[in-house]
């Protein structure tokens, strides 16, 4: 189901323990870096940054792909261009078991991607900032 109401979002945020941040950046000017750093500092999440072009963020290893993660994350948080969403979802669905949640950051909305993820049993959040919703509903 597409999750948008505050009670559903809060339930997702509280239930999540591990998050793969696809498109995480080591560049402080990038929104994905800001969100990653906030979550690393203030959330209860175990974070797994994913980006094939960098090796680490502040000493934390960055994984080249979802398939390289040492765990199957509860949530895949996506910071990629719209045209890359299909490949990200394909990689997400290749994980066994599938992650519970697909979170598309602000500016990302795709009905077909959402439907495919939902049909695979995932709950989907689109066009929302994980940092903003976490701060508003859970933490600082």
Can you describe this structure?
With 140 residues, the protein is α/β, with parallel strands linked by helices. Helices cover 34% and strands 18% of the residues. The chain has 5 helices and 7 strands. It has helices at residues 6-15, 31-42, 85-93, 111-119, 130-137, and strands at residues 18-22, 46-50, 56-57, 60-61, 75-78, 101-104, 123-125. The strands form 2 sheets. Strands 2-1-5-6-7 form a 5-stranded parallel sheet, sandwiched between helices. Strand 5 (75-78), helix 3 (85-93) and strand 6 (101-104) form a beta-alpha-beta unit. It is globular. The N and C termini lie far apart (27 Å). 34% of the residues are buried. This is CoA-binding protein. It comes from Mycobacterium pinniadriaticum. Residues 12-108 form the CoA-binding domain.
Structure in a nutshell:
34% of the residues lie in helices and 18% in strands.
Shape: globular
Radius of gyration: 14 Å
User: What value does the average pLDDT take?
Assistant: 95
Q: How many beta strands in the DSSP annotation?
A: 7
Strand content: 15-25%
Question: What structural class is derived from the secondary structure elements?
Answer: alpha/beta
- Order of neighbouring strands in the sheet with most strands: 2-1-5-6-7
Low-pLDDT ranges: none
Order of helices and strands: HEHEEEEHEHEH
Tell me about the largest β-sheet.
5 strands, parallel
Number of helices: 5
Helix content: 25-40%
**Amino- and carboxy-terminal Cα gap:** 27 Å
List keywords for this structure.
two-stranded antiparallel ribbon, 34% helix, 140 residues, single chain, CoA-bd, globular, CoA-binding protein, NAD(P)-bd_dom_sf, 5 helices, alpha/beta, five-stranded parallel β-sheet
């Amino acid at each position: 189901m597409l999750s948008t109401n505050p009670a559903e979002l809060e339930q997702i945020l509280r239930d999540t323990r591990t998050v793969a941040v696809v498109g995480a950046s080591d560049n402080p000017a990038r929104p994905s870096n800001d969100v990653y750093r906030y979550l690393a500092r203030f959330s209860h999440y175990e974070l797994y940054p994913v980006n094939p072009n960098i090796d680490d963020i502040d000493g934390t290893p960055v994984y080249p792909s979802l398939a390289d993660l040492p765990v199957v994350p509860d949530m895949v948080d996506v910071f990629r261009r719209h045209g890359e969403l299909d490949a990200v979802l394909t990689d997400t669905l290749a994980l066994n078991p599938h992650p519970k949640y697909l979170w598309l950051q602000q500016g990302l909305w795709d009905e077909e991607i959402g439907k495919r993820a939902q049909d695979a049993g995932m709950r989907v959040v689109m066009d929302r900032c994980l940092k903003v919703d976490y701060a508003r509903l859970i933490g600082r």
